[in-house]
């Protein structure tokens, strides 16, 4: 349940105090809370319960108690719940657009994209309960039959990020739930409603059984109190983490000690190769979208473009012209494409990386000067290889794109692979066979030919390799959130060596 915040300066729909959602109840009303601010102007947009280990334990217990019934629920009953939730998401579109704007700085273009993907994923997952649950295998032993069935794991505990929070939170719990697991979510403290709490409202209204989905929120800096419980609880059989590689390394060490299965959806350094036979206009459109959707704060945003030198000048001039038409400002204005960065630290990171490149001799094509949290789409060319934004060693999480000209496609390809990340990449070419041959050699979880590095669809398996993590979305998530059970039946007496 959410309560209107009487004292909030703004009376918009997002000014609410949110409780934890545990075992089908909104708990802890009147307990400690922490404020959530609009990244654009620092306005208070809500408060959320400041929880810790006690709430996390209660949530895990509720999820564990709900597991057997949820795992055995008839596929038709589960299907109706998911379909109903999809309808509620669409009905609440306007309110969700507002929420994502004031909590995360998301433009209407980005929030609408997330709402569409979320409803699509719910509707697809609704049917998975009817897909084959296993296989019958042949045995060399006379009279023996072997069957393999997919079984849910138990409780899956999820961490959600603040960026793309609405869709990514669905991805974090909906995929495990569709395969029969129950869940506990710890949303990002920067966007607790769009990263989990609003989902609890939707599932509650849809009629999901108590305990199947639980949300515990925490004040900034207090995440470990909750995550420690996840790692320590035997009932939690899998940790589903979406966030930075930095946090994943901390949690991964804990998972190692606890021998806990972990799914990791991390960042990327997603290159675009524009070959000499590419359609320049199409490349400009794809790169503008791929690099600057959500101000470059999406894991799959393009970070570096390698463009053939014969197309370089035309591409850069066209990209600059297109990017400079993107309206910057308050994302509640439907015409705005570029909203604020999430916090001052994000602005400082981009500014420092731009300055580092300029100090080393890079050329500024456009952008480069912040107005508060508003940082314009920024393009750098002639960037020395050792500039931080160009090396590929670290993700630059904001609206900064590096462009590099090449003469030899093979060299450009090799340079594009010189990064610890392996999430997404794009090749722009009119020769699809050439594109496919090159694509086959990319060390990434995703490679698009003639599309942006950000080309998500709910049905497609998104995920990374190397430091971008492992695990896949869509139906392929069955590999992450179920385990294979082997059952054999023998009809004849055994033949044993002793
Ligand atoms: P983050 O790593 O700071 O936070 C992610 C989650 O981990 C949050 O819930 C946060 O509260 C929690 N967390 C942070 N420190 C913790 C700690 N010490 N102990 C326990 N929990 C902790 O990431 P973010 O800034 O929220 O998100 C942006 C990052 O996520 C970027 O690197 C982006 O590329 C990545 N990301 C990846 C995908 C993907 O699908 N591959 C999608 C979205 C975001």
Automatic annotation (TrEMBL):
What lineage is this protein's organism placed in? Bacteria, Bacillati, Actinomycetota, Actinomycetes, Micrococcales
Boundaries of each Aldehyde dehydrogenase domain copy? Answer: 26-485
List the PROSITE patterns hit by this protein, alphabetically: ALDEHYDE_DEHYDR_CYS (PS00070)
Please give one Gene Ontology molecular function term for this protein: oxidoreductase activity, acting on the aldehyde or oxo group of donors, NAD or NADP as acceptor
Q: Which SUPFAM superfamilies match?
A: ALDH-like
What Pfam families is this protein classified in? Aldedh (PF00171)
Name of the molecule in the record: Aldehyde dehydrogenase
**What family does this chain come from, according to its entry?**
Belongs to the aldehyde dehydrogenase family.
The protein's superkingdom reads Bacteria
The UniProt keyword set, sorted, is: NAD, Oxidoreductase
Task: List the InterPro entries.
Answer: Ald_DH/histidinol_DH, Ald_DH_C, Ald_DH_CS_CYS, Ald_DH_N, Aldehyde_DH_dom
